[in-house]
Inverse folding.
């Protein structure tokens, strides 16, 4: 909505055009509409930016319970701050940064409570199968499902830094590099080169697996 | 970030600085002969995006909570920002378990000190004054726990907050809400 009036500075750093760019450029306008009482604008913000918040939380490897609480806290805060946000166009970065800070607090709290830093406790994965996962079980989807599972498995086997970066980059719609920077606390300028290395490392793992 | 509140990027970092500058990027193995193009990279990233949407999507119930959170948007209430959090701003006490979480929220000249333990919650409104206090615990708090601060501004609750919580204070004819926080 209100196309043509929104500055898209958040994308100036993009080395190439990503899908979803148009949606994301509307964020500032949506924030302003939500401030004026437009509930549909808020809904659109949640739809457009939820995957980014979730990706940042997942990149920090919290338990499902902690991840859910951080996710909620981030949105509650965003609602509180809505009318006070100085740069509505950068609401995505605000959310990513808030999510990161809350994740780091959870990690700090766990470290303080645990006698040892047991990485297993930070690395729990949900045992429950989502409806989407169950769809993968249908026979015609079997080979596609296998491909996706292998991709996910090789992704999960990457080093911590690559796994973190790619987990945030794969949010949908694709996040801007400022948002990735805010969500992971890394310099915008280092994201492009790291992304390239991590994706090529992942491709190498996939190719190595096929050769076996 | 953006100076909106105190715990923006750089305020602290559990992993120290330069989190990505480590040995993980020192070895070049596995990259030789695999120099895909930027197009290949974009394609692979897109496949990951599809995989994430299937294998690790935002849980539907959480998405709904975020939708409903618009109800928390309230320009009439003053926002008391988190200005001190012992989890971030205090030196951890080694070996001490169940250390109380000390929090300070500030809205102009008014501040609220809160101490959260596994036993409950206690706090004080400064400058000292009576206040009605609701402990908000998520969105479903139709009947939030209600506390009363005495003339010294002190209040206690034997119900420890869990998950996201905030305090809504009514004092001197105005409403002040603390920033949402995960207990």
């Amino acid at each position: 909505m209100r196309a043509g009036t929104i500055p898209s500075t958040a994308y100036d750093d993009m080395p190439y055009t990503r899908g979803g760019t148009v949606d994301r450029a509307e964020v500032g306008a949506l924030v302003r509409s939500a401030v004026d009482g437009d509930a549909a604008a808020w809904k659109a913000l949640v739809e457009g930016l939820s995957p980014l918040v979730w990706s940042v939380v997942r990149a920090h490897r919290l338990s499902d319970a902690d991840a859910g609480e951080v996710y909620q806290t981030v949105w509650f805060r965003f609602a509180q701050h809505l009318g006070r946000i100085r740069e509505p166009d950068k609401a995505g970065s605000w959310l990513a940064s808030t999510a990161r800070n809350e994740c780091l607090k959870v990690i700090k709290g766990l470290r303080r409570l645990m006698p040892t830093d047991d990485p297993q406790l930070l690395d729990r994965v949900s045992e429950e199968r989502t409806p989407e996962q169950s769809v993968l079980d249908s026979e015609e989807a079997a080979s596609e499902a296998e491909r996706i599972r292998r991709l996910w498995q090789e992704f999960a086997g990457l080093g911590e830094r690559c796994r973190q970066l790619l987990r945030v980059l794969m949010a949908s719609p694709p996040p801007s590099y400022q948002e990735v920077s805010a969500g992971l606390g890394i310099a915008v300028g280092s994201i492009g080169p790291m992304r390239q290395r991590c994706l090529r490392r992942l491709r190498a793992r996939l190719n190595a697996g096929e050769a076996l | 970030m953006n100076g909106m509140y105190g715990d923006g990027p750089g305020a602290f970092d559990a992993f120290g600085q330069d989190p990505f500058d480590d040995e993980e990027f020192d070895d070049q193995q596995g990259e030789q002969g695999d120099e895909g193009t930027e197009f290949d990279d974009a394609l692979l990233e897109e496949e990951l995006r599809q995989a994430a949407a299937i294998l690790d999507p935002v849980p539907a119930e959480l998405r709904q909570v975020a939708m409903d959170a618009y109800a928390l948007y309230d320009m009439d209430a003053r926002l008391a920002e988190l200005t001190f959090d012992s989890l971030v701003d205090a030196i951890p006490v080694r070996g001490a378990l169940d250390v109380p979480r000390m929090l300070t929220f500030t809205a102009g000249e008014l501040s609220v000190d809160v101490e959260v333990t596994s036993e409950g919650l206690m706090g004080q409104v400064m400058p000292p004054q009576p206040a009605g206090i609701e402990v908000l615990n998520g969105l479903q708090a139709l009947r939030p726990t209600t506390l009363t601060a005495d003339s010294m501004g002190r209040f206690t609750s034997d119900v420890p907050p869990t998950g996201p919580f905030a305090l809504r204070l009514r004092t001197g004819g105005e409403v002040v809400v603390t920033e949402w926080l995960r207990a």
About this structure: Residues 1-23, 26-34 of chain B have pLDDT under 50 and may be disordered. DSSP finds three helices and ten strands in chain B.
